[in-house]
Each structure stands twice: as C-alpha cells, then as structure tokens.
Amino acid sequence: MSPRRRTVVTVVVLIVIVAAAAAVGVWRVLGDAPEEVSLAGAVEVAEQAQAEAEAEPATPDTGSDARQGDDAAQDAEDSSETGDAGDGDTGDGAADATGGDSGTDDDTASDGVAMATAELDGTWAVDAETGEFTLEDATGSFAGFRVDEELARIGAFTAVGRTGDVSGTLVIAEESVTSVEIEVDLTTLRTDDSRRDGAVQRALGTSQHPTATFSLSEELHIEGAVELGESISLMASGDLTVNGITQPVTIDIEAQLVGSLIAVVGSVEITFADFDVAVPQVPIVLSAEDHGIMEFQLLFRRS
Fold first, then answer.
1. How far apart are CA 286 and CA 154, in angstroms?
2. How many CB atoms lie within 10 A of CB 83?
3. Which CATH number fits domain 119-302: 3.50.30.30, 3.40.140.10, 1.10.1750.10, 2.40.128.110?
4. Cα–Cα distance between 231 and 240 in angstroms, integer?
5. Angstrom distances, CA of residue 5 to CA of 19, 174, 295
6. Which H or E element spans position 166?
7. 142 within 8 A of 163, measured Cβ to Cβ
8. Is 279 exposed, middle or buried (0-12, 13-18, 19+ CB in 10 A)?
9. Closest among 88, 69, 66, 89 to 77, alpha carbons compared
10. 257 within 8 A of 225, measured Cβ to Cβ
C-alpha cells in the first residue's frame, strides 16, 4: 500500500473513531432523564415492602404458646364448673351475650377507617432502609432537583440531581400534621454527568453549608378519615434553608397510607438567586434556567 493510500485510510479510521465517540457522548447526554416523582411510584415501593414484611415467617414464641395452652385448659375447667352449678337460664344468657358480641364486631369493622385514622397519631421517621437509591432508579426516600438546560450541539435537556441521604420526622396529632423536620445531605448530590457535579457543589456552597433543611411552619389539617389506599393532596407551608439562607416556600404534596408506611411526594419551583445560588457553569452547557424544581419522594415509618 502506497504512503498516500495509508494516509487516507488512517484519516478515515480516525473519523470513524471520533464519530463513534461523539455518538456515545450524545447518547450519554441525551439519555432519558429520570422521571419526575409520582405518588404511584412511591406507593408501589411501599406496597412491595409491605408484602415482603408480611411474607417473612414469624418467629414462634414457644413459651408464649405453652402459657396460652395452660390458660386455655384452666378456662375450660372453670367453664365446666360454672356449667355444673348453673341452670338453663345461664345458657340462654351466654347465648345472648354471644349475639351481643357479634353485633359489636360488626360495628368495629364498619368503624375500621376511623380507628385507622386515630392510630396515625405519633412520630414518623424517614425510612432510609426501604427501596434502593441510584440516580436513574431511585425507589426509596430521596430528594433532588430538575433544571432545564441548553447544551452545545445537543439542544434542550433536563438536568436531574438526587441524593438518598435524607433524614427527618413528621408528627401527627388529632388528624393534623403538626410538625415536619427534614434534612438533606447535599454533599452526596449527584447528577447524570460528573462534570456537572462539581459545579453544582460549588454553586450550592456545600463546603460551608453541607445540608438543606425544611421545617413546617403551619399545621396541615387532614380532612376526614385517612383510608388505606386513598391519596390526599395538601399544600405544605414552611421554611426551606439552602446555602445557609432560609426562605418561605409552599410545597405541593401528595400522600398515601400504605400499611405501616406513609408515602409522600412533593415538588416546588425555586429561584436560585433567592438562595444566593449562581447558575452552574459547565463548558457543554450553553445556558441554564435561573430556576428549577425541587422534588422529593419520602417513605415514613412510625418511630
């Protein structure tokens, strides 16, 4: 092969390699962004966790079973002695009592929803064990953001950042959420591109203010009974602290009771300048909105 021909072949190969690399880069950038939070997704995770918990075999309490057997034998002996001493009227009374108990059971079943609502009272903590966390498939508790960008040679794209390092509690008393305290570790916030991660950390000032917090400022009144499998929508007003700056916000939230878990999702639009956060600058990003969506998916378990 002549030197000229070898040169032409080499150039062609290099073009193919560069094109392939560019294609991979475009695919990586244009890969589908993680979906927005949804109550249906959170409920699905909670239901799966509930099913797995119910499927676990209970540890037999041999000592308890033995005590129950002894108690049953004693009850039988007492009943026998009572029967010998009584007459037919006593039997009729027992039958009447049984009928009365049956009616009570029916009433209890019909009031089960109200009883479940009352049982919500107490402190619930963010469940960090249920589900798993990855940027693309976050199935447990997490918080993050969504920001629209314009990328060089690519066009419009939605940048998503998330972290699973969320903790906190909510308190329910007399059909009202009286307190919510949430803390998010922003130092573990990750996006779909490591080049963006450093810019986000600098913009949020995580070296000095590593956490973001939310504190409920007004009680949330739960109207009526909270039924299993029924969602509720609320507006949560509180104080959001990011980059050491606190601002009042009102967050749209949806919640649903799923067995022993409460699934909560929510989102709110925030303006970066309100928290002294500069729009992150990355070479590939031509421009980015000066506002974004803060979103979260939280599972709460009674503490």
1. 10
2. 12
3. 2.40.128.110
4. 25
5. 21, 85, 58
6. strand 166-173
7. yes
8. middle
9. 69
10. no
Q: Are 296 and 144 in contact (CB under 8 A)?
A: yes
* Helix, strand, or coil (residue 219): coil
Distance CA 5, CA 20 (A): 23
Greatest pairwise CA separation for the chain in angstroms: 121
Q: Is 167 helix (H, G, I), strand (E, B) or coil?
A: strand
Cβ(297)–Cβ(138) below 8 Å: yes
- Extract the tokens encoding 32: 């589908």
Output the six-digit token pair for 287.
């421009």
The pTM for the full model equals: 0.69
In whole angstroms, give the CA distance from residue 149 to residue 159.
7
For every one of its 303 residues, what pLDDT tens digit does the chain have, with 9 covering 90 and above? 665 555 444 333 333 333 323 333 333 344 567 889 999 999 999 999 889 888 877 665 555 555 555 555 555 555 555 544 444 444 444 444 444 444 444 433 334 454 455 678 999 999 999 998 988 888 999 999 988 865 544 456 688 999 999 999 999 998 899 999 999 999 999 987 787 788 889 889 999 999 999 999 999 998 666 777 789 999 999 999 999 999 999 999 999 999 899 999 999 999 999 999 887 655 555 445 677 899 999 999 999
What's the CA gap between 176 and 118, in Å, rounded?
A: 11
